[in-house]
Design a protein that fits this description.
By secondary structure, the chain is α/β, with parallel strands linked by helices. Helix content is about 45%, strand content about 10%.
Length: about 325
């Protein structure tokens, strides 16, 4: 007889997933359901993705972390995975588009995060089911402060969910089963076997997320297109990373800050050179100035300089990325 298993938030903990499946001697015909959040934070997100992508008799639900990737709302954990996946990342995004937001068996409804009481399964909001920020804010408008959606669940059919770490063992309340037990933080990976709701667990080998955050700082920083990022956004990135004190990463960030500072400080000199070039062209080609000026990619600045109407604020607005500054410096 084929069995059905529902596994909690894996978050890239591939070794623990395999250990857990081996502990129940998972067979090819057994059905495996993931509540979602199979990637991010752990050390082997790519392997977890490939496992589920290639395994028959499996389904992965859309978690808030998958949805972040799909919508390209990337925080640090997603940026790490994007670097880890490399050329496979685009295929991963296409695969994410196929993920359902819920799955129903004869014994349970499986969702990633939450279920709104009083609505049937087909009426549920996707952002609620997957635990997106908008969905969580919506639930806050329905239920009193410091309460949770399953405090109000009264239906007869069991719900299995993940998303919120509930401790070392499943949280069972009002016929709901919370099975995110914090594997990526060094705690447990939990799986429920249906139809008898038998619990299977393995202990994580370490706190993967704590380790991964440090390990991937430099690769993620190097993957960013600093040259074509606006100076304003670079400054925001630097401010967001100001807490980092790891020596190698701190050195990289300090050098980045100095580089952008030097480029921005070069604008007065660029202004002077454009004014000089405009005057030179006007002196050498008084009748052909327009024709000569349009040969330059920054001809607009030359025309403004000719009219003595080019100001530093014009360059600050137009040369708003490192690459734009570097390109004009190369010509001047």
């Amino acid at each position: 007889m084929n069995r059905t298993f529902v596994v909690g938030d894996i978050h890239g903990c591939f070794d623990e997933l395999i250990e857990l499946l081996e502990s129940v001697a998972l067979q090819p015909d057994d059905f495996l359901i993931s509540v979602g959040d199979i990637v991010d934070r752990g050390n082997k997100s790519l392997e977890v993705y490939q496992f589920f992508k290639n395994r028959h008799n499996s389904v992965v639900l859309m978690g808030n972390h998958e949805r972040k990737h799909l919508n390209q709302v990337l925080s640090y954990a997603q940026e790490i995975v994007k670097v880890q996946f490399g050329e496979e990342y685009q295929g991963f995004l296409e695969w994410l588009q196929t993920l359902p937001y819920y799955y129903e068996t004869p014994d349970a409804i499986i969702v990633h995060a939450a279920f709104e009481q009083g609505k049937n399964l087909q009426e549920q909001r996707e952002d609620v089911l997957c635990g997106a920020t908008a969905g969580e804010r919506y639930l806050e408008t329905l239920y009193p402060e410091n309460t949770y959606w399953n405090d109000y669940y009264t239906d007869n059919k069991s719900i299995i969910y993940g998303h919120h770490v509930v401790g070392d063992s499943p949280k069972i309340k009002n016929n709901t089963y919370g099975i995110d037990t914090g594997c990526c933080h060094g705690d447990f990976l939990t799986m429920i076997e249906l139809p008898d709701f038998k619990v299977h667990q393995v202990k994580a080998k370490k706190d993967y997320w704590k380790e991964e955050q440090i390990k991937w700082q430099i690769p993620v920083l190097k993957s960013k297109d600093w040259n074509n990022m606006s100076f304003e956004n670079i400054q925001k990135q630097l401010e967001k990373s100001s807490y980092i004190q790891e020596p190698q990463t701190r050195d990289y960030l300090d050098n980045l800050e100095k580089w952008t500072h030097d480029l921005k400080n070069s604008l007065p000199n660029i202004l002077q050179k454009i004014n000089n070039l405009s005057q030179d062209l006007l002196g050498q080609f008084p009748e052909e100035f327009n024709q000569k000026a349009t040969q330059y990619p920054f001809s607009t600045y030359l025309f403004k300089a000719k009219a003595k109407n080019l100001h530093l604020k014009d360059l600050e607005k137009g040369l708003n990325t490192p690459q734009k500054v570097l390109d004009i410096v190369k010509i001047l």
